[in-house]
Amino acid sequence: MFSLLLAGSTFVGAVYAGSNYSTSLAGSNGSTSLAGTTVTTDYGTFTYSEASACACSQLSTSYPEHLYFPNTSNYTYYNLEAWDIRTNTNPACIFSPVNADQVAAGVGIISTCDAQFAIRGGGHMNFPGANTINAGVVVALAGLNGLQISADNTTVDVGPGNRWYDVYSYLEPYGRVVIGGRLKTIGVPGLTLIGGVHYFNNKYGFAMDNVVNYDVVLGNGTQVKASADCNPDLFWALKGGANNFGVVTKFTLNTFDIPLVSTTLQFFNGSGVEAFLQAACDLSANNDPSIAAGAVITTTYNATTKALTASLIGVQAGTESPPSRFENFTAIPAVRSINNVSSMATFAAQLDSPLQMLRIEFAVHAMKPNGTVLYQMWQMWKAAVDDIKDVVGLYPTFVANIDPKSANTIAKTNGIGNVWGRDDTESSIWWQMSTGWDLAQDDLRMTTWIQKVSGEIQKFAIANNVSSEETDFTYMGDAGEWQNPFATMPAENVEKMLTIRDKYDAGGAFSRLNWGGFKLPY
C-alpha cells in the first residue's frame, strides 16, 4: 500500500523537421534511417535499435496523431505520468491509442518489428522498468478512459486509462462502489491485474475477484474476451497473473450498493505505537465479513527529530459513525480523530499521492497477526532508519496491511479462484517498508538498505514463528523489484500460468519483449 497521506520542442538528434517528420522515417521494408540515431533527453541518452526504429516509424506512419517522439511536449507529458521519479526513462517513442483497435494494431506492429515495449496504465508501480522502458516503445493507455454502467447497475465497463477516483466519481450518482484502489491516483489496470487491495476485501474479496470479463489484446494483435464462459483459462490467469498474457483494454467489474461510507482518520504519537500495531493485528484476525470494512495502517519516523507518528485511515460501509469496526483504535488516546460519512468518491478525493513527488522503494512480507512480535519488528525497522538519517528527503514508513481470511474465501468459493491459491483458514498481516528519498545519488544506497533491513526483519519473524518460507506471501503491489511474488504462489499454479501464457502468447511478446512489472519464469 502506498503510504503517503497528502490533503512542443524540436526532436533532438535527428535531421528531420516540419510537418513531414513522422512520415519521412519509414522505409518500404519497415527499416528506417532512425536506426543508429542517438538521442539525448532530460533523462539521459539512448540509441535507436533496428527494432525500436521500425516500431516507432510504422506507428508514426499509421497513427501520426498518437505517436510522440522524444523532446516534444506530448512525449514529456506521458513520460512523466508516473508516481515514482525513479521510473523516469527514455522511451524511443510513446504510443497513446484511444481505442482497442488501435491497441491491437499497435501491439501487432511492435511484435512484428520485434521491438521491446512497456505498457502503462496509471503508472503507479514503483520501480524502474515497471511501466516504462529505455529505448523501447511505451504504450500509454490514458486515452482508453471509457466508463459505462450496465442497465441493471450491477457491473461497470472500465477502460484501463482510468484511475480509481474516476471510477468512484462516475458511480457516485448511482450509489454504487467497485472494489478498487485506496488512493485516488492509482490506476485501474495495474492494481486489478496484480490482485487489488481495497477497504472492503473482507466482504467482497480482492479487485481481481470482482472482474467478470476482460477484453484483451494478445501479443500478435488479436482481440479476445476472457470470462467464466469464454477463454476461462485466460480469465483465471489474469486474476493476479499481472501483465504476462496481453493488454487488457476493458475491465467489466462488479458494483455494490454502497451509497455512503463511514470513515475515521486517527492520528497517534509515539507512545501509542505498540497499542496501534496490536489493534492492527486484532482487526486483521477479527474482521468479520458481515460488515465491509478495512484500513490503511501506517507509522512514520523522523530520524532527525525523533518524532514518531501513527495513522489510521478506516473505512466501513454504511452510516454508523464513528465506524464500530475500528473501536480498538478508538480506545487508544489519539492526537486527533476525524469521523465523517460521505460517498466513496468524496472520501477518496482527499487521499492523493502526487505524481513525481519522491523516489520510492517498497518491500513486503506476510506474517501471522501477533502484536507483540510485530512491535518488535517495528523497533528493528526504527533502529535501522537511524542509520540512514543523513539521506536527503528521507521519508520512511512502516505499514501493516490487513489480510483477513475471509478475503481469500471469496476465491475459494466463487467457482473461479485466482492464481494466488491462498489458504483461507487464517488471517495475516502484510508488513511493508515504504521509503522515499530525494536524490538519484542515493538510489543504490537506499535500495540496498531496504533489501537488507527487510530481510533481517523477515528472518526475525520466521525465528519467532509468525512467518515461514512456506507461508510467506509477496504481494506484487507492495513488493521490491528484487522480490519474486510468483515464488510465493503454489508451484502448480505457476506451471498452469506458463501453459496458458504459451497458449495465448506463442510468439513471446509478453515474455521476450515486454519486461514491465513481475514476469513469469521464461
From TrEMBL:
Pfam families: FAD_binding_4. Keywords: FAD, Flavoprotein, Oxidoreductase, Signal. It comes from the Eukaryota. Residues 87-258 form the FAD-binding PCMH-type domain. The keyword Oxidoreductase applies. Residues 1-17 form the signal peptide. One of its GO terms (molecular function) is FAD binding. Belongs to the oxygen-dependent FAD-linked oxidoreductase family. PANTHER family: BINDING OXIDOREDUCTASE, PUTATIVE (AFU_ORTHOLOGUE AFUA_1G17690)-RELATED, FAD-BINDING PCMH-TYPE DOMAIN-CONTAINING PROTEIN-RELATED. This is FAD-binding PCMH-type domain-containing protein.
